[in-house]
Design a protein that fits this description.
The complex is a heterodimer of chains A (443) and B (331). Chain A is mostly helical and 443 residues long. Helices cover 61% and strands 3% of the residues of chain A. Chain A has 21 helices and three strands. In chain A, helix 5 runs parallel beside helix 8 and helix 18 runs antiparallel to helix 20. The radius of gyration of chain A is 22 Å and the shape is globular. Chain B is an alpha+beta fold. Chain B is built from 13 helices and nine strands. In chain B, strands 3-9-8-5-6 form a five-stranded mixed β-sheet, with no helix packed on it. A four-stranded mixed β-sheet of chain B has the order 2-1-4-7, with no helix packed on it. In chain B, 38% of the residues are buried. Classes of the chains: A mainly alpha (443), B alpha+beta (331). At the A-B interface, helix 2 of A face helix 1 and strand 4 of B.
Chain lengths: 443, 331
């Protein structure tokens, strides 16, 4: 399937270039975000009846993992409210660049940290506390508020969107999985970028800001770090930026060789499996250990969690790299082959999320009418009783997602193995085994 | 600054104010009474003010598990207080006083600690009548002294058989309520020693006398009260093996371990009403006292502020049904 340039359509292009539609979405999202924090802090402590738990961990998560990431890649990042207050402060404007820029520190992000290891750590931090985080409104409220303030603080110290690019616990995996999405922002002609003076897409102009994600669009080959903010579409003086529809997982034809991204794939794959066991499984001991943060049982749980992700799964995967010449080449091959785990991990998360989203979706209606648990009935749906939805399609849907993910990862493994010049069979075998384990955990 | 920028900033500021102000405003305007398990705080607030004749509107919500709400000494049906939902209750008090409200759902091992008070006052309120002195006080019963029956029946005594046997005996002095309330079944058994009845026959007569001092309606009422308020600890069948019995025993052991010189580790073990020695040696007034006052450190709560006197006598009558065969007297 060839690419289809969506920005050829004048209406789409104008809608993306204009700041007003984006601003309208930003305002609504930010209002929802602030409302969610307040609901978490002053609303009912019963998670299933509090807006923040229901709308963040059920509604938002469902949209993110089942729709936004698979079909729009970093589409969520394009409308995420977290960086907005900091970015507006940093820019000194909410629309076009002002004549006089505010004087913030505007530092470059430290070179040693220009990777996603911090995002790996921030995700794991949340993951280890997830049983409490996912069920306790005020904890989620504090975490969301903390992320907002962290983004504001980093915007006043560092240039561009340092929080999104290097710290956001969600941004890391969205970036990883956005490589599979059938949408991309790319340049049309490399030569135009090469000869472009001033590179306003990166440095900014009167029409817009330099790339907030610290990416030079002329060098974009993957979706991983493009936040789809559309600034380059506004600043490019040569109309050389395009938003395209493309085949799924186009970026994985030339996989990354970075270890931070490779380990992100293990973190996500392993977390989905552990969550399936802990949150959806029948083992009360595991649930108690995950919930009772600070107890010795929880420390054991955390140690096992981290061991599975950083030792067990990567160690077995390392056996898939059947050729060893030197350590550097081995690491590159390891990272390249781990691309096969990206579609598999995404589909693991789809299968896992289907389970708890369909089980808990009925809470959305009740919470919509009574978001703080104060006894309101705004839309007449406050008394909606909890009822799992579409239970008949759950198991077939999960099976389809996992088997589809396995086939998808097998095809990706073949391409990655060609790049790494090794056999794809061990990688496919690895994917087959973890898929079988995930099927057992979910079904 | 450009006009568009200014308008955008105003829009954003208004949006933020709306997002912050709306929940805060409605939150402050919606006072709720929060129910939490006792170890997490119980009722909040736990003291409520009200006036005689003025309807008191309460909005109740649970912050953790399912609770229930009822007010002692008042005729009202208990309402459920569900997690994250709001239950509306309207109460009207016709006399002043301090009323106890309490949880009616077995929410946890400390469920009985979930109590609060409603202080009802008002102009024209009648002065509090002098409190009635409980019978056990009048009689000088020591509620904490052992009161075991030295003799127990070999089989469950039958009120039906007892009634047949009693027709040939002079029973008038035993049949009146005063005797029933102030004497234990064992005392009556002893009083029947001058007859030529066998031991089991004497117990049958005791059973009959105890039954004749209650009614099917009272037994039914007692059974319902027991099921709702007592069975969690004492067990559905009175065996001291309710759902919280093990937890209470553990809590008792833990608390006793911190006390010096303690040897008995049964501090919080609920009483077994099927234990004949214990129940047949207890007069109704003694059981009434225990229910009224509570167990003083044993974990048995005091019910005097919750049950009416009639309810307590009904409950006492029902407790003896664990010993005597009343043949389906409860309705």
């Amino acid at each position: 399937m060839a690419k289809i340039e969506l920005t050829r359509n004048t209406s789409i292009k104008n809608a993306l270039i204009s700041r007003y539609p984006q601003l309208a979405v930003f305002v609504v999202m930010l209002m929802g975000y602030i409302f969610a924090i307040l609901a978490g802090l002053v609303g009912t402590p019963v998670g299933s009846h509090n807006f923040i738990i229901v709308f963040v961990w059920i509604a938002w998560w469902a949209i993110l993992i089942l729709v936004a990431v698979p079909f729009f890649g970093r589409g969520w990042c394009a409308v995420c409210p977290i960086p907005l207050p900091g970015e507006w402060l940093q820019r000194g404007a909410v629309l076009n660049p002002p004549e006089k820029k505010p004087k913030w520190f505007n530092l470059r992000w430290p070179k040693a940290l220009r990777n996603i290891w911090l995002q790996n750590i921030s995700f794991l931090l949340l993951a280890l506390f997830s049983s409490v985080l996912l069920t306790t409104p005020n904890i989620t409220g504090i975490v969301l508020a903390g992320m907002l303030f962290a983004a504001i603080g980093l915007s006043t110290i560092f240039e561009r969107r340092a929080f999104c690019r290097y710290l956001c616990p969600v941004g890391g995996f969205i970036g990883l999985y956005s490589q599979t999405a059938p949408i991309e922002l790319r340049i049309k002609d490399k030569q135009v970028c090469a000869t472009c003076e001033g590179k306003p897409c990166y440095n900014g102009s009167t029409n817009g800001y330099g790339c907030p994600w610290d990416v030079f669009p002329g060098g974009l080959t993957k979706n991983t770090y493009c936040g789809l903010c559309m600034e380059c579409l506004r600043t490019c003086p040569h109309d050389n930026i395009a938003v395209n529809m493309r085949p799924f997982s186009a970026d994985l034809a030339k996989p990354s060789t970075r270890m931070d991204e490779a380990f992100k794939a293990f973190i996500m794959l392993g977390s989905a499996m552990i969550y399936a066991g802990v949150l959806l499984g029948p083992w009360g001991v595991l649930k108690d250990a995950a919930y009772n943060v600070g107890t010795s049982a929880w420390f054991i749980y955390a140690a096992v969690f981290l061991s599975i992700i950083f030792l067990v799964m990567p160690s077995f995967f390392a056996l898939c790299v059947t050729r060893f010449e030197n350590l550097n080449i081995f690491k590159k091959r390891f990272a390249t082959l781990s691309a096969a785990l990206i579609p598999l991990g995404l589909m693991f998360w789809v299968a896992f999320s289907l389970s708890f989203v369909l089980t808990n979706a009925s809470y959305i209606l009740a919470s919509l009418s009574d978001p703080l648990g104060l006894g309101w009935n705004l839309f007449g749906t406050a008394q909606t009783t909890w009822q799992p939805m579409l239970t008949t399609i759950l198991a077939p849907g999960q099976t389809l997602a996992l088997v589809g993910g396995l086939i998808w990862s097998a095809r990706t493994a073949q391409k990655a193995a060609n790049e790494a010049k090794v056999s794809a069979i061990p990688v496919i075998g690895y994917c087959l085994i973890v898929t079988a384990v995930m099927l057992w955990l979910l079904l | 600054m450009k006009r568009s920028e200014l308008l955008s900033r105003i829009l954003i500021t208004a949006g933020m104010l709306l997002a912050v102000g709306t929940p805060l405003f409605f939150w402050t305007q919606t006072p709720l009474i929060h129910a939490r398990m006792a170890e997490n705080g119980g009722w909040n607030p736990d003291v409520i003010q009200a006036e005689v004749g003025n309807p008191l509107h309460l909005r109740l919500t649970s912050d953790d598990v399912m609770h229930g709400f009822s007010v002692g000494q008042m005729k009202m049906d208990a309402v459920d207080v569900e997690p994250g939902k709001v239950t509306d209750v309207t109460l009207t008090f016709d006399k002043p006083g301090i009323y106890t409200f309490f949880c009616t759902r077995w929410c946890g091992v400390n469920h009985w600690r979930m109590r609060g008070t409603i202080e009802v006052s008002g102009p024209g309120a009648n002065p509090e009548p002098a409190p009635t002195i409980p019978l056990y006080v009048t009689l000088g019963f020591d509620l904490d002294a052992p009161h075991e029956s030295p003799v127990i029946p070999s089989n469950q005594p039958s009120a039906v058989r007892g009634q047949q046997l009693a027709t040939n005996l002079e029973m008038s002095k035993f049949s009146n309520p005063d005797f029933y309330r102030t004497n234990s079944p064992y005392q009556l058994f002893e009083a029947l020693s001058s007859t030529n009845l066998s031991d089991l026959e004497k117990w049958d007569v005791v059973s009959y006398i105890w039954q004749s001092n209650t009614t099917p309606k009272a037994l039914t009422n007692g059974r319902d009260l027991y099921a709702q308020n007592c069975a969690a600890c004492h067990g559905e069948n009175g065996g001291g093996d309710g759902v919280f019995a093990d937890d209470l025993a553990k809590a008792g052991e833990a608390s006793m371990e911190s006390m010096t010189g303690a040897t008995d580790m049964l501090m919080q073990t609920p009483v077994d009403f099927t234990d004949s020695k214990r129940i047949l040696g207890a007069a109704p007034a003694l059981l009434q006292g225990k229910i009224l006052r509570g167990g003083m450190g044993t974990g048995m709560p005091m019910w005097g502020s919750i049950f009416t006197e009639e309810q307590i006598w009904d409950l006492v009558a029902y407790l003896y049904s664990f010993q005597f065969d009343y043949q389906g007297e409860a309705q």
